[in-house]
Amino acid sequence: MNTLPTNLGSPKLTRQASTHSPLSGDMLSGLSLEDAILHNAIKKTSNPLDKSFFLGVMAGVWVGFGGIAGLSVAGGIPVSVRNDWPFLPKLAIALFFPFALHLILMFGGELFTGNIMILGVGLLNRVISPRRVLLNLITVYLGNWSGCLLTAYFFGYKTEIFAHEPYTSYLQSFTISKIEGHGWGVLFLRAIPANTLVCMAVVLALAARDTAGKIMAAYFPVILFVVSSFEHCVANMFFISVGLMYGAPSTIARLWFNQSAAVLGNIVGGFLIIACSEHSMNHWQSLLPAVLGEGDFGKEEGTLAAHDVESTRRAQDFAGHQEADDGKEVMRQRLRERSGSLGSVRKDILPRRRTLT
Questions:
Q1: What is the pLDDT of residues 213-244, one digit of tens each?
Q2: Taking the domains of the chain in order of start, what are their residue ranges?
Q3: 30-282: what fold?
Q4: Cα 246 vs. chain centroid, distance in angstroms?
């Protein structure tokens, strides 16, 4: 049985202690989760560029396999049914495409869009340099392209999987909807939530500590982005390429038109929304109290967010045992010590400043 550590009363939380805390037996959260992301960021930028490229190719191959599976199901739906129930092809792809992310996270590979978030957190915490971030992203992007093209050509096109109806007509119409059906601004806006959800899946998979948890955590956010028809630049590398190979009436220029919007929108979703939100939750610097002149409150860093919510939940798991009372008392003592210097009015809801080493 997990037990609560005896040093929870200290307001000083070190990264080493938070990483190995028994409180995170089921999942990582708060500073512990940030530690895991930072570890990945440092490791990714420390890899030689040829290895990063190879890992990018692997991820592109897994994306291609997921795309082939999704298209095989969606394209097999009769045309009349597709016209009457347009959500069915979306749902078919959404149910199978997420397995690409499972292969990347659990076997190996580097995904450009996921790296935007991971390296963004590392950049915000100043543990990696902007130069290394840029080199990694460019290398992985090219690797993803190579893997998607190889899979599209050898396993999607040369195998003639989609060479007959109703597969061909569906693949062509699906491709045209991505590169001819919308303006640049629409594609850009659709790309923002796409990578927001993909990066959320990556974060949740990192937080989960067992195989089943990682599979479930990475599955549902990807379903949301696919079934919503959002635009993901790496997924489009495969889908649009294989569609053009099967004769979709468009051009390579339109493919890059889609990519330009999707890449920029994915950067906004991965970095500005997920990476900056994760960093802000753990390193919040309030401006409002400084304006109002409320003492040292404006200097406080962190909130009673994920880490402490998870700690409380873990403490409650011991209900009915002696450890429950001891654990809850430790939590109460910790809150009292962290909030003691802030005054009696706000002492039950405000955390003490976390010092990270």
A1: 999 999 999 999 999 999 999 999 999 999 99
A2: 30-282, 285-357
A3: Glycerol uptake facilitator protein (1.20.1080)
A4: 32
